[in-house]
Amino acid sequence: MATTVAMTETTLTAGGNTAQATALPMDEETFRTFYDRTARGLWSYLSRITGDRQLADDLVQEAYYRFFRAGAVHADETHRRNSLFQIATNLGRDAMRRGLRRGSIVPLPEEHDADALVAGTDLAGHVAGRTDLARAMARLSPTQREMVWLAYAHGSSHQDIAEILGLKAGSVKSLLFRARRKLATFLTGERSTP
Amino acid sequence: MTTCDREELLLEVVRAGRWPELCGLELSSHIAECASCAELVAVASALAGDHQASMREAPVPPSGLVWWRMQKRANEEALRTANRALTTIQAVSVAAGVVIALVIIGSFSNGRSLLQGLKELMNPVHFPAVATLAPWSFPLALALVTCVALAPVALYFAFARD
Prior knowledge:
Shape of chain B: rod-shaped
Strand content of chain B: under 5%
Radius of gyration of chain A: 19 Å
Largest sheet of chain B: none
Oligomer: heterodimer
Number of strands of chain A: 3
Distance between the termini of chain B: 54 Å
Number of domains of chain A: 2
Structural class of chain A: mainly alpha
Mean pLDDT of chain B: 78
Largest sheet of chain A: 3 strands, mixed
Distance between the termini of chain A: 61 Å
Shape of chain A: globular
Radius of gyration of chain B: 38 Å
Mean pLDDT of chain A: 76
């Protein structure tokens, strides 16, 4: 009783605005190639936005399954990856909400004001400690965490971030700037704390 | 919101792992003077470093195992869907059986015999088609019973293949 789930991809006609969709089943080999390219990055993303490594283990597998079952049409590899990260983001947010309700995830209070960052501070000279970073990340809002990770760790473009997080492309730049400033403030605070 | 036009270049340097040793004297001195770039480098280098470390330690299962688990789960979900449909059909069949039984029992309790009640139920006056089909009643009844018995099985296989 073999179940085949149709996974399709599109080939874009050269020079045309209309995309001619060529339905191709995502066979095992295609899936494995895609998985090998994306799984570690997805785990890193989920573990950092949720702050829970074990939860990330579960969410990675759930994200691939939902992506697989959705059978969506993707214009190219970037869109396919964005779609996977979008599913993972929603799963991460749901898990965080459930965790907050259960009390297993406790958000840290935001003690610092982002505007309090002192201009000219030699931030660049600081060596990032991973614990400091985890603490600082925990103080950001979920969307800010997702945004800074995608932009500076994963290397996603503003367009990709907008697509993954469901934001307007035009607002990503300013939101990202604020999130970055906030994280820098928290990192400075963490490192100056003995 | 104050940004510097060198931020893109800086990001590339950080992502390529050229910060701070291999970024060049000119860029280093710029960062020392530009608060926005200093902030960017601090955040980006911390995140990029953590990203590289987490990529190395990510405990992701092999792709073959994940594929197998997904297939298994998809099959189980298809089976559950088929079972739900079967349960619905069975419930409707049972409900129909109960209604027919109640009708028969009701006729019997009104002082008529069961056989008489059944005869009245199948009276050609009420169902003219019954008179036409009367010679074929046994084969038809047999076919009907067979269909009712086999329908859930057929549905099961139809959903299972899906």
